[in-house]
Fold this sequence. Notes:
This protein is of the alpha/beta class. The chain has 2 domains: 3-190, NAD(P)-binding Rossmann-like Domain (Rossmann fold, 3-Layer(aba) Sandwich); 195-244 and 277-329 and 350-366, no CATH class. 38% of the residues lie in helices and 16% in strands. The chain has helices at 12-23, 40-52, 107-125, 162-181, 207-222, 249-261, 280-290, 311-320, 324-327, 336-341, 354-370, and strands at residues 3-7, 27-32, 64-68, 91-95, 129-135, 146-148, 185-190, 192-194, 233-236, 246-248, 269-272, 298-301, 331-333. The strands form 4 sheets. A 7-stranded parallel β-sheet has the order 3-2-1-4-5-7-11, sandwiched between helices. It is globular, with a radius of gyration of 21 Å. It starts with a strand and ends with a helix. It binds NADP nicotinamide-adenine-dinucleotide phosphate (NAP).
Amino acid sequence: MRTAIVTGASGFIGSRLVHQLLMRGWSVHALGRPKSGKSYEDRVEAAIEDIDGLPIERGILPELRCHEVDICDSNLGLSRPLSEVLPGTDAVLFHVAGDTRFNPPDPEAQRRVNIGGSLNVMRALQDSVASVVHVSTAYVAGDRQGLVLEGDLDEGQGFCNCYEKSKLDAEIEITNLCAESGLPLTITRPSIITNDTRTGRSSTFTHLNAIVEVISRIQKHYGISDGEVVSEEIRIPADPNSRPNLAPIDPIVDALLDVGVSPQGAGRTFHLSHPDPQPNSEVVFLAAEAFGVKDKIALSFVAALPEEPTWTERMLLRSLRPYLPYLNGAATFDLTNTRSIIPDYDSRFPPITHDYMMKVIEFQRHQGQDDGD
Ligand SMILES: NC(=O)c1ccc[n+]([C@@H]2O[C@H](COP(=O)([O-])OP(=O)(O)OC[C@H]3O[C@@H](n4cnc5c(N)ncnc54)[C@H](OP(=O)(O)O)[C@@H]3O)[C@@H](O)[C@H]2O)c1
């Protein structure tokens, strides 16, 4: 039985990764912190149950062991070294934990997690693992345009927010540390992850959730339902032809695992992005169709909203502001390394469809009811 150590197991990607590893017969040690009076074990199990909204498969639980750590502590605060509880040193470390906020109130605290925390994890575990898989982001490319190669890193690019810069600096520092210690390192770079294709579910707020939220707020404000509109023309401050790289979580986690456990992964970087992302115009019209207003409004795309936007347009701008750099991004991500390990990679990524959009809306509405929203 193979052993994995996973940080960030209470989060969106980490919980799904842990679940997949357990389902594939791995033994998993999850590292993270208790919160709000809940042990880390309870939090990880709840996050796994949240994937499909179903009780956890009891059979996989004996192979899940949770250890309470804060990656910002230099020795992770482990009461005893992990090497004492690991069967050998052939474990794979999947470092998934990170502070993913685009504009956190304290950017330095984010850097302590994304850079300092990553180095703490590597240093504390370097003698207990055979290899490391680091989850970075395709947006270490910042504001670059055109084709971004998997081998590209610091190309003098600018950044849309401090999150991107912290992830770039983390990649650089982790690469240096692993090179010094001789630890084989695989870097994975997902793009913008969206809801599950089968269920529309997501434990985090995704770009698609943001679009659905804007329309839901407009409906609430004006007391209207699906199929009704308040103004016939809405101007959207985005480039209609730009293709935000939205990739659903389920094929992303499968690909992360395939690349992470491949013997050909070490020393290489892999983009995990959608091979054929759709343009803004298509995504927005699919959303309009899902809300039953496609033929009732004139949606137009503008470079910037005029000085006196309508209430609806102001709301749109306020909700979508953090996402605009990504909606208007002009980078495409090379997938040569990824396809070399996963030859059927492209066929795993379906386009956004009406059916998928409906699942996202349904999930979000149920969640709103559960939250008493
Ligand atoms: N979601 C995306 O679209 C996306 C795209 C590209 C790359 N990524 C990368 O993928 C990774 C995971 O993202 P995600 O979407 O799964 O984020 P997420 O749902 O916010 O999960 C982040 C995880 O990191 C953990 N963490 C944060 N600070 C920690 C600390 N000081 N000590 C221990 N654990 C800590 C969190 O634990 P708590 O639950 O205790 O806070 C949580 O388990 C990140 O590194 C991110 O940069 C994400």
